[in-house]
Amino acid sequence: MNNHSQVVAAFQIIPGEKLISVQLGFKNGSETLSSANTNQPRYWVLDIIALPSPEGTSHENQAADIIQLDISASPQHAFLADGLETSRQRSAPTALRFIFPAQDGYVTRNDFLEQRLECCEFAARAVSFVSPLQAITSIAQCQVTTSNLTDVLTKSIGGILTPFASNNSALVLTGLDEELSNKLSFPWIVPGPLKRKRVAWVQGREDINVSQRAYQAARALGISLVIMDNDGHWLQDEAWSHLRECFIPLDIEIDPGLAQRIVDAVRAYPHPIDGIVTISDFRLPAIAKACETLGLPTAPYEAYAIAKDKAKTRMLEPDAHESFTVSSVEELQTSLVGRPASLLQFPLIVKPCHGYNSDCVSKVWNGPDLAEAVRKASARHADAKDANTNVVIEPYIDGPEVDINLVLLDGEMLSCEMSDEFPCAGDAEDATVDAGFQETKEVIPSGLPENERQVLRESIKKSILRQGFQSGVFHCEARVRNSRVHYSIVDGILDLQPKSDPPNHEISAYLHEINARPPGYLETAAVSMAYGLDYFAIRLLLSLGTEENTRVRALAQPFLNGAQFHLSVTIMPQTRAGTMKTEDAAESFLDEHPDIREKTVDHYTQMKKGAILEGPAAASLWWVAYLSLISRESRQKCLETVAFAHKNFSYELE
């Protein structure tokens, strides 16, 4: 830092005419240059360190002028006023950093600072002062004084309030410098101009708690949403009108007429619609068909139809000969006649071709259990409007399960990150046919060896391309065959450990499924916090075609240094049946354990007071709550926190 100056000043907050007297230190930072291999925009910063003047200090004896802050007209003035008030209330120094652009362009998303600095330990609060699609004009550095401060601040495009644990402002600001180099390493200023677009969003999700980030992303990108969902959906209410331009009541049931109903709704809308998005697996093919009819950007309908069907997905894989498909127990018996024993080695996995969330997935060890699992899986969707009784039978792969999320653009992999899916009940060696495969916890980033992660990256990309996709956000699930690591308990903690007798066979990826959409809300939120990647934003931009390729490339860049912490999305399952008595089980747990709250970056209780719990044997896979728990220190510390949460999480039933 250079250009350091320190003065005593008084600020008058308008409206209200409140007077705050402080000692101010100004530090102009040098212009930030792009780090190696990044397209980081050029910018410079102004740091203001405020220290409250002692009580009873006469302003007239210390300063010549009163600085007026108009908080109603200037968000920058309002941000500074909040920081000064924080300093006064704590009687402690407060540092505020204002960011100024050193190049022209357009802001990629107007909340770039809030989104990339979420969970940043050197930013108690971050605010962007720009509007969606706003043009950015380069601001030359200047010497800041009390006389020009208010005018200079109005030219800033973002502000950061730092958390001060001591009087060592230099240490905190140095840490913030490093964080900005790491997290603002993507092109948050791009060439323009950028234009407002309109996207039809089909199926508005069940509530705001599992959709809010998607709607925030649309607003930040300058995209107007037209929600299409069944009449009576909560987004139709006036209370949520700020999230969308319009709500169109539409029958979105999954049947052969869905694509045409969407086409008719788009054509009837009075304004042009530029793209259509859904994150509902079973509606993706209909959306693609509607886009093809309307001439809107989309991947081929055939690609989505393959991704939706686990049998078609498996048949495209190099190891497809190990699996087969039947639609009934009778067809199973016929298929087994003459089938080589080498291709029917137990244990086997049985699952519906149109399954989701590991629903109705069984591991079987013998012929009778195989027949029962096929009967159950074939009946799972037999009565649906898009009825499908097909069942996939495939080998059980005794290797680590991994979620792989990729962003592709014209066949190029822009980003890829992985997380570990820890073993569930169905993975146990003594698991019965009734043991389920509901997720228990997911840990970011993956603890697999780098060579195994590289095998997954290359293999999964090839699988996606084989299905006919070239661009998109993809949430894939796979296991590592012949992995050199396995799950083992060490010091009371279950985690990946090297095998004492590793296999000699080649490491390979065994694909379970490709979901041609962002991961579920919990994981999408976790990835955004850990890596700075917002899959909802990227998916929205991809729906608009090649005009948005620049922003897609920009937003597909994670933090320069990778994940900022170890994070576990920890599921608290139903352990008993009954009516929930506890008002909010997650909040109650965190109130009882404030030290765990400090390590919790996200949480939500799904089964609140009055909810009916079916218990562990529930046909549906609804959990009680989830907690996203972190450690900035190590994966081991994160897993220790998870173990504590699982042991101590509780709820009451009536």
From TrEMBL:
Q: Name one GO molecular function term.
A: metal ion binding
The question of whether Metal-binding is a record keyword is answered with: no
Q: In this protein, which residues make up the domain named ATP-grasp?
A: 310-544
Question: Which keywords appear in this protein's UniProt record, sorted alphabetically?
Answer: ATP-binding, Ligase, Nucleotide-binding
Sequence intervals crossing the membrane: none
Highest taxon in the source lineage: Eukaryota
Q: Which InterPro entries match?
A: ATP-dep_AA_Ligase (IPR052032), ATP-grasp (IPR011761), BL00235/CARNS1_N (IPR041472)
Q: Do you know which SUPFAM superfamilies this protein is assigned to?
A: Glutathione synthetase ATP-binding domain-like
According to the UniProt entry, the coiled-coil residues are none
Protein's UniProt keywords contain Cytoplasm: no
Q: Which PANTHER family does this one have?
A: ATP-GRASP ENZYME FSQD, FUMIPYRROLE BIOSYNTHESIS PROTEIN C
Name recorded for this polypeptide: ATP-grasp domain-containing protein
